Amino acid sequence: MAENASPEGEVPTPPERLHSDSSVSLTAGLENPSIIGERDSEYVLDHEGHHRYLRLGRALLYLKEPLHEPVQSEIEKLHKKLLEEIQEIQKKQKTKNGSNKEKKKILNDYLKSKCLNEKVDENNKIYITNVNIEKWESHPWETGKAFMPSGQMEKNSCPQDTDIMGILRLISSCKQFNAWMNPGADNMSGHTKIQEVLKVRNLVAHSNSLCCSEEEMKNGIEQIKILLEHMKQKFESFADEEDFSKDEKRIYQRAEEKMEGALCSIEKVMTDTDFDVMRELVVMDICKSRAYESSDETHRKKIAKVQLRYETRRIFIVLNDLYKNRSKDFKERLQNQDALQSFIIEAKPDDVQFLLAALEEKKMFQAENLDALLQVIEPLEKENDFRRIKRKMMEIKKSLERTSAIASATIYDVLILHCEADRNEAISFRQHKLDILKDLNPPAKTILYDEYVVSGTSHVSALDYVLDDCRLVFILCTQSLVQNNLSKFQAEIVKCNSLQKNEGPRVIPVYLMEEDFQCAPSWIRVMTPIHAWKEYAQTSLMNTLRNGRKKYLKSPP
């Protein structure tokens, strides 16, 4: 038992909320490891056995994908052969009259007879009921479905739609793939290796607890790698055989390369941290892919029950990723608003409180990011909790509206105010002498940048947003400059100066009073400023703006 797992019989405590810097194993016990209950479904996400289960499921998916193209190619060849034989028999029929129902029955019987001749062993069963007779002549994959387990659905129209069980059964049951099954360098037949992997698939597909032991995971991974190596060797030899056409050789070459990639991916999934495995959201594949669809209806319901908790955790992961990498676009990270919609609809009170707390951390979002959340919450605003969420988001969005222009501006002017006191001082000063705010580019107006308006972005990174997008960057310099940490801008200003030589933005200090200039540090005093207290300040500012705009005339705002 893991060191921090719950003792037998002891009720586990809920796991801590996922933190952005989580890179260690997250563990929690299950009340009953063989049954997923309502409370267990919340804790199974952080269970070590479940992380192993996810690794095993991911390895099965890595095995399946490289088989798609070569399997499709072989089935098309088999279908063409059977179609020609059946058409030849139909030509010899004495009469072509009869109802459609009779013709379907005749074709069905012919196809069943031909497929029986193509099966590898007497014990292999043929399920002709899997085949849509009406589509068979024009859809080669219908032929392959006859060699798969019963119950293949109508939507199964290609290898991508087929579960790993169906593909492996087809390969091992149909004579068309005999060359694939010949013993490899280890003298083991492909049939034996496929049977071992099918045991692994059944372990994943029928695990009531959605967990597996360390031994089961390692053994399963090993069997998958053995089969991948076997197929890789076979495909490599087929690519060199003269019996195959150029197109077929290319198919096998591509499949061989994908097999190599799959082996590397399996090695990686074994070394990933538990948090990385969770971030991959493997359950979305497990719950939606036919590779894991069980014939056991009860089991499918259990998987569906735990899926909701995954979607909740999915949002937590997204929020924490946003916290860690604030420059990433929210929609890109979320990828699918349906997950958030599902989370909000089914969210429990503590989940709602967590989301509210996340929204209160303004540094997790930019103004435009909130639009995606607002669209999802809009239909649910009748509920009290969700009205509060929307109200909170609107407050955050309003406070960020002025800063969102930084990201969207192209050649605008920017005035940076480095503290709340400076803003008030500038507003008071302009009433008597220089209307700084009004004279800046009207479409962009002014970006008021300070720690009160945009929390979570340090002064040091303030200019990162405007280095490439703005032509003129004004920094308001007052006597409070030092105490408000504007000195941290020094490295950024040096960067600006080097960019300015390469058509980058021009950085201009603006001093309201003579005392401000005298208090400024030497690194900023060497820059050409605008002295707002002097008579020619208005003309100086307007000339600076005019010259800056002429320079970018080819790209008007």
TrEMBL record:
Residue ranges of the region described as Disordered: 1-32
GO biological process: signal transduction
Domain TIR: start-end pairs: 410-552
Top-level taxon: Eukaryota
SUPFAM superfamilies: Toll/Interleukin receptor TIR domain
InterPro entries per the UniProt record, alphabetical: DUF4559, TIR_dom, Toll_tir_struct_dom_sf
Pfam families per record: DUF4559
PANTHER family referenced in this protein's UniProt entry, alphabetically: RGD1565685 PROTEIN (PTHR35083), SI:CH211-91P5.3 (PTHR35083:SF3)
Protein name, as recorded: TIR domain-containing protein
